[in-house]
Specification:
about 110 residues; 3-stranded antiparallel sheet; two-stranded antiparallel sheet; 9 strands; about 20% strand; binds zinc ion
């Protein structure tokens, strides 16, 4: 099973392209990462026999995993990791630390500290 940087994510991939959505651990805001095309010679063929289909599925699966890994990295740049609970949160849910030596934490942790 694929491992996401956020607790929730959605795989919107099709046979033509890879697309993932990640959700802020705090408020659920959607973070979309760039769509990656599934570039392949198979796309041009209208009829695929079972051997070609099998080959396509193998390549697709490998490319899908790579695309997901890349999307996770993109999502990490969009989100901030709370230094207290480890949640990946969006800009709106990020509190830039006063007591954390300039670190960041999420709104929930900030509130429970008070
Ligand atoms: Zn958020
Ligand atoms: Zn937190």
């Amino acid at each position: 099973m694929l491992k996401s940087v956020t607790k929730d994510f959605a795989d919107k991939s099709t046979l033509e392209q890879f697309e993932f959505e990640f959700y802020c651990d705090c408020c659920g805001a959607v973070v979309r990462t760039p769509v990656i095309e599934f570039v392949s010679v198979f796309k041009r063929k209208r009829f695929l026999n079972s051997d070609i289909k099998k080959a396509r599925d193998i390549i697709y699966a490998a490319d899908h995993d790579r695309a997901f890994e890349r999307a996770n990295i993109e999502a990490m740049y969009e989100l901030n990791r709370c230094e207290i609970c480890g949640a990946m949160v969006c800009e709106d849910c990020t509190v830039y630390g006063k007591n954390l030596n300039g670190g960041v934490c999420c709104k929930k942790c900030d509130e429970s500290e008070k």
